[in-house]
Amino acid sequence: MNEPRIASLQRVTGETDISVTVSLDGTGAASVDTGIGFFDHMLTALAKHGMIDLDIVAKGDLHIDFHHTVEDTGIALGQAIGRALGDKRGVRRFGSALVPLDEALAEVVVDLSGRPFLAWSVEFPASTVGEMDTELFEEFFRAFAMAAMMTLHVTKKTGRNCHHIAESAFKATARALRMAVEYDPRAAGAIPSTKGIL
Ligand SMILES: O=P(O)(O)OC[C@@H](O)[C@@H](O)c1cnc[nH]1
């Protein structure tokens, strides 16, 4: 326990080429280049508020649309976080956060369960924000949760501005994840599951 939880990987398909490095015990330093400005802004917020150092370079078939790049970034990031977590010995496992951005309020609950699941309850009043289709946020979070083998509930409590709604969801995910991956001082290095593995 308390070994540096760092993971790097590269995921290459016929559609995307994505390199990710994560450090779960970082300061929230981020270097993100996906070719999609708003997405970079969201991933930078995820790093900052999750206190996860994040280095992402994603090259994708953006001439088609942003779908493959957004989804595959979720897969690669989720895989890297899952790899950095290892056996999850001594972690809190559960995390939750309510985070506003102006009129928007998002609630996120994370369980590092090993059972991948996304419960998405976020409606956007418009179909785009920046140059991104708002429907892609669900694709990102689903891919991320599946690849990280976590249970993830993302709920919009309220909100009207799409930028605010999206950013509150990413920030709440960051804070919930930060709580879940942190070491529990009372866990004494135990696996936080009655079945002995996660
Ligand atoms: O974390 P802060 O909200 O202090 O800063 C980021 C935020 O100001 C900026 O991303 C934003 C403000 N309104 C929409 N987005």
Textual characterization of the structure:
- There is one protein chain.
- This protein is α+β, with helices and mostly antiparallel strands and 198 residues long.
- It has a single domain (6-181), classed as Ribosomal Protein S5, domain 2, CATH 3.30.230.
- It contains 4 helices and 10 strands; from the N terminus they run E-E-E-H-E-H-E-E-E-E-E-H-E-H.
- A 4-stranded mixed beta sheet has the order 1-2-4-3, covered by helices on one side.
- A hairpin with a 2-residue loop joins strand 8 and strand 9.
- Helix 1 (37-50) runs parallel beside helix 4 (162-181) and helix 2 runs parallel beside helix 3.
- The chain is globular.
- The two termini are 15 Å apart.
- The protein binds the ligand O=P(O)(O)OC[C@@H](O)[C@@H](O)c1cnc[nH]1.
- The ligand O=P(O)(O)OC[C@@H](O)[C@@H](O)c1cnc[nH]1 binds next to helix 4.
- This is Imidazoleglycerol-phosphate dehydratase.
